[in-house]
Write a structure and sequence with these properties.
Four copies of one chain form a homotetramer. By secondary structure, chain A is of the alpha/beta class. The first copy, chain A, is built from eight helices and nine strands. The termini of chain A are far apart.
C-alpha cells in the first residue's frame, strides 16, 4: 500500500462561494476522493489548520507520498515545518506539487531557485505528452485540453528538470513545462501545473490519471533513516541549534 | 574580462604549519596566482575575515564567477550572507565550489540536498574524463592522477548533475562524481572535488586547467537584474521581513 | 578560427520561383552571408550537386562545424556518405541540423530514433527561451516571433535532449522542442526547427544570432583521430567489408 | 505479465569447457532460470541458431522486454534483423543490453555512437549505487562486489545517459558507468556491464535483483503500432526499397 497524504492550505474554499461550489469538500477532499478509488493507495487529507500545520513528525513518518496544494498562504508555513518536509523527502518520501505549490517553501527549498513564472487568469490550455515512455504518462494520449485554466508561462525559474513529461500550450501565446520531475536525496518529486481553484480541473479524467500515475512513480524505492551531513536538516536549523 | 572572486575561509593556513608551507599565501592566494595568468580574467581574493565576510553587495555585484573554498567554518557564514550569494547566482553569477565547499551554505541552498558524502584521509586518486566534449574538459586527457588526495566517495547526496565531467577513482575502493555541473536560475555551477589543504593539489597543471576552463564555462551568458518571485531571496529572508 | 561548412540540398531554390525570390543565392548562400560577418568564423558553402555530394573526406576533415539544410532529398545521400558524416561527428565535429534536417540520414543515425513529428504549413510561431544560461541563448530575450513558419509539433521522436533551449508555440495549438542539444562521441549537435524555405526566416536577427551562437557552442572542444570500436564507422560499413 | 525474451549468441558455452561448467544451460538458460522465479514475468530464451536468428516478427511482437547477451558474434546478425529490433524498441519494447552487448548492432544503432570502451581481463569490481531512488536500484545497498569480472573502463563512447545508476570501480585503476538508462521512441533501454562468460556473475544475488528490477522498469508504459516517419525502420531499409 502506498500511504498518500493530501495537504491543502484550504483557504479559497472557505471564503469564496464560487470555489466552494466547485470543491464543496475542499480541493483536498476532491483529490482524496479520486485517489481513494485505487486499491494500492491509502489516502488521508490534512490542512493547514490541523495541529502542527498538518505536518507533524507522526504524519510525515507515515507518509510515502505527500501531495501539496497551496496558493496564497505559503508564508504562513513555518520554516521549521518546511525543513521537516524537505528532510523527509531527502529520506525517501515522494512529493507532488500541484499548481501554485511551485512557490511553497518545501518545493523552493528543494529546488534551490526562485520558482517564479509568468501568469495570467483565464486561458485555454492544451497539454502535450512529450514523454510517452514515462510511467507518469501511462494511458495519456498525444494531448488533452482544459477549457479553462490559469496561464502559467515561461520562463519558469526551476532547475533543469530531470524529465519533462508534459508541455502546456496556452491560447494567449505562452508555453510551459507543465509536468516535470526532479530527485532530491532518496526522494522523487513531480510538479504538475494545472489546478487553479476557480476551475474544475481535478475532475478531469486525464488530470486524475496523471496524479495517480505520479503517486506510484514518486512512491519510495529505497529509504534511509538518517542523512549523513550536519546540514541535512537545512542550514537554518543547524544555526538555530548553535 | 571575466571578473573572478576567490573566496577562502582561510583557517588551516593560519593554524597548521604543514598547510602554511604548502600554501604560504593561502589557498586563495595560490588559486588567484594561477588564474591571473589568463589575459581574459581579472582576479581578486577575499576571505572570511574581510568586512561582511568578504561577500558584500559591492563585491558580489562586481563578480562574474565566485570560487569558494571552505572546510570547517561553514557554520560561521550567516544565512543572510549565504542567501545573498544564492540570489546573485540566480541572477547569473557563476559559482565554483572546490573540495569541501560541498557543505557550504550557498551550495547546499542551491542544491536542495544534504550534499553529504563518504570520506577518508590520504588516498590516491585517478580522475577520469568521461565527457570529452564539455568545455570544462578542454585539454584534459583520458585521465590524470593525484598521488595524495582526501577520499570523497559515493553516495554523494547531490541532485542528479546536469553533466558529470570527471569521475574519481580511489585506491581504497571508492568512486566519486568528482566534477559536476548544475544550473540554478541564470547562474551556472561547477563542483570539483580535489583540493584537500594538506596536499599541493592546486599546483597540479590539470587541476589548474580545469578550474580555468570552469571559470569560462560558468561566466554569465545572460543576466537579470531582478527575480520575479516573492521567494527569490530565500524563504528565510521573506519570513524575517514579516 | 572556426571552420564552418554550410551544406544545402539546394532544390527548392532551383525549381520554385517564390523560394528563389527569398533566397536568390540559395539558403546556403544566405546562411553563409550572415555567418561571414563574424571574425572568428571561416565559412564555405557546398551543395548536394558538388563532387561526393559536397561531403568529401577532404571537406569534412577541414570542417569544425557542419550546418545541414535539407527537405526532400534526404534519400539521395548515400549511406556511406552519411556514415562518413556521423564518424566525423563522433571524432569531434559539430553538427547543426536546421528545420527538415530532422530527417536527414546523419541526424537520424546519430539520434537512433525515427525523428518523426507532426507538421502543417503556414502558421505563426513564438519561440520561448527556456534556458537563459545556455551559450546558445546568449542575447536572446524571453521570446521572439516568426510571423510565418511551418508548424512542427510534438510528439517529436528524438531521444530526450540533453538541453532544451527553445520551445516553440504555434497559433494552431501545438508546441515543439524547437532548439535542442545532443552529444555523440566527441561531437556536439544542435537541432533548430525554424527555416521553412517559403519564409524569410534566415533573415530574422534572432535566428541569425542563435545559429551564430550554436556554431561557437558546437565547435570542437577536444578531438580524436580514431575511434576504438569495430563498429565506429557504422555497422553497415563493417558488414560491407566482410 | 511482462513477456521477457532472453537472447544469447550462445557461442562460448559450446566451445569452451570452462564456460560450459559455469553455465551448463547456457547464459540464456541461467538468466531465464532466475527471471522465472518472478510471478509477473513470462520468460522465454532464444539463441542465434534459432530461425531468423531467434528474432522473428512473431517473437518480437510478443516480447515486452528483450535481454541481449553477445560477445563475439555481433557481425553475424544481419542488418535487417537488427533494424527490426530497433524498430520494435521505438514502438515500446524494453531492451536490456548485458556486458558485451554494448557492441551489438541494435544497441549501437539506437545509441548513435561507437560504444567503444577500454577493457582488460580478470579484475575485481566494486559496483556503487549512485542513484538510490531509481527503481532499478531497489533493494541494492551502497555497493556490492564481484571478485572476478572483466574490466570495462572509460571513456565509454555512449551518449550522455539519462540516468547513471551504477558506477563500477576496478582494482586496476578504472571506473565505468556500469548501469545506465536511455530512451528511444516509446522504448526504454538499460545497459548493465557485468557478466563476462568466464565468471559466475549471473548467479550473484545483486546482479539478479538488478536485472529483475530492470525488466520491470523497461517494460512498456505506452506503445504505438506505427512510427510516423519514412525513416522509421532505418535509412538502410528505406534505401533498399527504392
Amino acid at each position: 500500500m502506498i500511504r498518500v497524504t493530501v495537504w491543502n492550505e484550504f483557504y479559497h474554499e472557505t471564503v469564496n462561494e464560487e470555489v466552494r461550489k466547485i470543491y464543496p469538500e475542499g480541493i483536498h477532499g476532491a483529490i482524496k476522493a479520486f485517489l481513494s478509488e485505487e486499491e494500492d493507495f491509502t489516502v488521508r487529507a490534512v490542512t493547514m489548520s490541523d495541529p502542527e500545520f498538518g505536518l507533524s513528525e507522526e504524519i510525515l513518518n507515515s507518509t510515502d507520498v505527500l501531495i501539496w496544494w497551496a496558493h496564497v498562504k505559503h508564508g504562513e508555513v513555518p520554516d521549521a515545518v518546511a525543513a521537516r518536509v524537505k528532510e523527509r523527502v531527502l529520506k525517501g518520501m515522494g512529493f507532488i506539487g500541484l499548481h501554485s505549490a511551485h512557490l511553497c517553501k518545501p518545493f523552493t527549498m528543494l529546488m534551490g531557485t526562485s520558482c517564479g513564472l509568468r501568469w495570467r487568469d483565464n486561458d485555454r490550455e492544451r497539454i502535450w505528452n512529450v514523454n510517452p515512455s514515462h510511467p507518469i504518462a501511462k494511458g495519456i494520449g498525444d494531448y488533452f485540453e482544459l477549457d479553462h485554466e490559469e496561464m502559467y508561462g515561461e520562463y519558469f525559474d526551476i532547475p533543469v528538470p530531470e524529465d519533462i513529461i508534459f508541455l502546456g500550450w496556452f491560447k494567449g501565446g505562452e508555453v510551459f513545462r507543465s509536468g516535470c520531475t526532479f530527485r532530491r536525496g532518496y526522494g522523487k518529486i513531480f510538479y504538475f501545473q494545472p489546478g487553479h481553484e476557480e476551475h474544475p480541473t481535478y475532475y478531469n479524467p486525464n488530470v486524475q490519471k496523471i496524479i495517480k500515475n505520479a503517486v506510484r512513480w514518486t512512491a519510495p524505492v529505497n529509504t534511509r533513516a538518517a542523512i549523513d551531513s550536519p546540514w541535512a536538516e537545512s542550514p537554518e536549523k543547524l544555526l538555530a541549534e548553535k
